């Protein structure tokens, strides 16, 4: 029995999932946050809760490719400050998934994404000078890292939607394009791998989901290669606008779906 029969997926449905997997690769090496579109496609083709378990290994495949591409550009002081808060968010997200239905999850995550996009746009327009990544060492920087970290851990656990939240944090912290991509690559590889036991414990990852993942992972590679080619042709201002636009689109999709 093939994976499409196992999941009762039509040819068009598998094609949509393959495109979503390709978009995951592109988002990991070019426009972080764009994979919220992939989240929506997976939830449309597969049962909503099950889709998060299928998508997670696909995201990890993209994370590995992103780390291999941008490993020299990660800003580790930012990562170390984020991880404790993210752990709190992941635990909270796990507890939330125990009782929340799909409607509550979608509405909550969509509202958070739109709020983060609005706050980031407002902060960047009102700031007199851009912040530098080392600013995370200040008291205000630590508080911001904790708040975004908890939100990022929560959203990535309940809907694999932590990308836009962390994108908003890294943009608001003043990261340039390569530093942004290198830091987010390591961040999501570590966080997504740490989510696997939680997702398996909730029954979201099993033999059926891994079979489908094996069929979809090959589509992540061309997306990542295209993203690596495209990112060198996107200037900083356009890069930031695309990240914010992808966040808004993802938030609206979750609210309106």
Strand and helix layout:
Elements: H1 3-7, H2 11-29, H3 36-45, H4 48-70, H5 76-99, H6 102-126, H7 139-159, H8 162-172, H9 177-201, H10 207-216, H11 220-231, H12 236-256
Helix pairs in contact: 2-3, 2-4, 2-11, 3-4, 3-12, 4-9, 4-10, 4-11, 5-7, 5-9, 6-7, 6-8, 6-12, 7-8, 8-12
Can you tell me about this structure?
By secondary structure, this protein is mainly α. 80% of the residues lie in helices and 0% in strands. It contains twelve helices and no strands. It has helices at 3-7, 11-29, 36-45, 48-70, 76-99, 102-126, 139-159, 162-172, 177-201, 207-216, 220-231, 236-256. Helix 2 (11-29) runs parallel beside helix 4, helix 4 (48-70) runs antiparallel to helix 9 (177-201) and helix 6 (102-126) runs antiparallel to helix 7 (139-159). It is globular, with a radius of gyration of 17 Å. The two termini are 32 Å apart.
